[in-house]
């Protein structure tokens, strides 16, 4: 009888291991509007890079984009969005964490100090992800299109970038330095060509923006796709396990 129970347990364990190994991996993306899914009504040309991310992977990887407009590392947590991710998170999944754009905002609902509350929030995301047996990945914020008089990009994220880079080392978390990667891309394109990445829309072109738009933070389809491609580039450089499921090579 004991032998039968032991055999049954071995078979059950084998089935569970097999299920785990063949199950799909989910990448949860958490962050702000530069990553978030956008409303597609009125032929809206705006996209977040998380919205364009799925196309780079085979069907064994699912991108579940939880990023929301206007959220900081603080408000994403206090509004219960992080709780929603945690409830779904399973061993082997990934959480891509990119905050900073809104953490510097002055309102109390979003503001964090880089070296205290911001760092504490990121640490919480990392430790709780790991507690679920999942894999945290830190990303620095993508650049804003803000050129100085000499046509060099200005830094608009300051110490928030420093903290992400330092924390990645302190906690041994993979880092995709999107600030550096996007800076290189936008700088190479220059002040005029880089408008194609961002929400620079001529009047009469978009139903959603009939008077046009001049937005140096958010992306059109082309820009969001390029940013998603830079993240994929980072995945390959880090040799993360999900790199084997990349099916589309980012275009230069």
Overall residue-averaged pLDDT value:
90
- Reading off the top of the CATH hierarchy, the class is best stated as Alpha Beta
CATH superfamily: SGNH hydrolase
CATH architectural name: 3-Layer(aba) Sandwich
What count of helical segments does DSSP give? Answer: 7
Rg from Cα = 20 Å
* Beta-strand segment tally: 8
Tally of structural domains = 1
Helix and strand pattern:
HEEEHHEHEHEHEEH
The CATH topology turns out to be Rossmann fold
Measured between the Cα atoms of the first and last residue, the distance is 64 Å
Give structural notes.
- It is a single chain.
- By secondary structure, the chain is an alpha/beta fold.
- The protein has seven helices and eight strands, in the order H-E-E-E-H-H-E-H-E-H-E-H-E-E-H.
- The strands form two sheets. A five-stranded parallel sheet has the order 3-1-4-5-6, sandwiched between helices. A three-stranded antiparallel sheet has the order 2-8-7.
């Amino acid at each position: 009888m004991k032998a039968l129970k032991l055999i049954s347990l071995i078979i059950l364990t084998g089935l569970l291991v097999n299920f785990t190994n063949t199950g799909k991996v989910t990448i949860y993306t958490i962050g702000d509007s530069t990553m978030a899914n956008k409303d597609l009504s009125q032929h809206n040309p705006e996209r977040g890079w998380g919205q364009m991310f799925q196309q780079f992977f085979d069907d064994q990887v699912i991108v579940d984009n939880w990023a929301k407009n206007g959220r900081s590392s603080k408000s994403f947590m206090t509004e219960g969005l992080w709780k929603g991710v945690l409830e779904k998170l399973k061993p082997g999944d990934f959480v891509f964490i990119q905050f900073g754009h809104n953490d510097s905002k002055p309102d109390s609902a979003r503001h964090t100090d880089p070296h205290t509350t911001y760092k504490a929030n990121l640490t919480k995301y990392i430790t709780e992800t790991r507690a679920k047996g999942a894999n945290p990945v830190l990303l620095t914020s993508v650049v804003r299109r803000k050129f100085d008089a000499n046509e060099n990009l200005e830094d608009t994220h300051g110490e928030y970038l420093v903290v992400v880079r330092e924390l990645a080392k302190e906690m041994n978390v993979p880092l995709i330095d999107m600030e550096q990667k996007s800076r290189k891309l936008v700088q190479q394109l220059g002040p005029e060509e880089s408008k194609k990445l961002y929400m620079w829309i001529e009047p009469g072109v978009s139903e959603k923006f009939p008077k046009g738009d001049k937005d140096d933070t958010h992306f059109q389809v082309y820009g969001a796709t390029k940013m998603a491609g830079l993240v994929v580039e980072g995945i390959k450089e880090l040799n993360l396990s999900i790199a084997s499921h990349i099916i589309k090579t980012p275009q230069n």
